[in-house]
Design brief:
Elements (H helix, E strand, L loop, with lengths): L2 H24 L4 E2 L2 E2 L12 E2 L6 E2 L2 H9 L3 H7 L11 H13 L4 H9 L2 H8 L4 H16 L10 E2 L6 E2 L14 H19 L5 H9 L3 H12 L4 H8 L3 H10 L15 H7 L1 H8 L1
Antiparallel strand pairs: 1-2, 3-4, 5-6
Helix pairs in contact: 9-10, 11-12, 13-14
């Protein structure tokens, strides 16, 4: 098992489940009853397969496991490490069934099926916006009510992230998304940001005006004061009209945005002398 599969198994069933799958994969090929764990042995002709429980050679283990040992095919696969999609029939039997299925293509029954099928009607029946689908839903709802089964509601929900649409069941869990992992994470992040904005008090007009009028180091001091009062960086960025990353650099690193730096005309002579030693020497001369 690779690291990715191990993480997936651990996410699904926990560490014990992942460890159990790991142990099963490490046990593939080891003796298991009359056969080998995780392997379905067949004879040389491919006519029969070996039963792990009793050691008999049979053409199909599905019926044999139930009739002789009282276990279902799914339980047999799980007990002996076989994949859930593993066929329990002999290779020759599988080949014969596949050949018979291919032989039906082009037969008289196949031609009758092609003549009777209507792809457009089938597609329209799957689309709930067509009148045919609406009539089908109207007919299915009373029938489901008579049978005591749940029926789809008439309203349609739309996923706010990907736009997928579905009809919820009455009495069931009324989910807000389509259920995809990416949609759930995106919606959770949106809700978290909205909740944080609701908890954060808005910046009053006077403080916002002082923040917009400040320049240079005064802007850094005012921004840090506003942030220390409980306001978020997003609010500071919205007031100043800058990006969130720029607001973060302003508050944490003291990097003044270009639009809020001190204009050269408003700087005093001492500041000019520090920035330009040549002009300072000329002033002294």
């Amino acid at each position: 098992m690779c690291l990715r599969c191990y993480k997936t198994a651990r996410k699904v069933g926990g560490a014990a489940h992942a460890r159990r799958i790991w142990d099963q994969q490490q046990s593939i090929g080891r003796p298991d009853g009359h056969g080998r764990f995780g392997i379905l042995d067949a004879d040389q002709d491919g006519q029969q397969v070996l039963c792990h429980e009793c050691g008999r050679w049979v053409r199909g283990l599905g019926a044999h496991a139930w009739m002789a040992h009282g276990i279902s095919a799914a339980d047999y696969r799980a007990a002996h490490g076989l994949a859930r999609g593993q066929s329990l029939s002999a290779p020759a039997t599988r080949a014969t069934q596949s050949q018979l299925a291919r032989a039906r293509v082009g037969s008289a029954g196949w031609r009758r099926l092609e003549a009777a099928r209507d792809p457009h009607a089938a597609a329209a029946a799957r689309d709930f916006t067509t009148p045919m689908a609406a009539a089908t839903r109207r007919d299915a709802a009373p029938r489901a009510a008579r049978n005591g089964e749940a029926a789809r509601k008439g309203r349609v929900r739309v996923c706010p992230v990907c736009g997928a649409r579905w009809c919820p069941l009455p009495g069931g869990y009324q989910r807000t998304t389509c259920g995809a992992t990416d949609c759930l994470r995106t919606l959770a992040a949106r809700n978290a940001r909205a909740a944080a904005q609701r908890r954060t008090p808005p910046i009053d007009q006077d403080r916002a005006a002082r923040l917009q009028d400040a320049r240079g180091e005064a802007l850094v001091a005012e921004a840090r004061k506003v942030h220390g009062a409980g306001h978020s960086l997003a609010q500071i960025a919205a007031v100043l009209g800058i990006g969130l990353a720029t607001a973060h650099r302003l508050v944490t690193g003291g990097a003044v945005p270009r639009a809020y730096r001190t204009p050269p005309a408003t700087r005093d002579a001492g500041t000019r002398r520090k920035e330009n030693p040549a002009s300072a020497a000329a002033d002294q001369g």
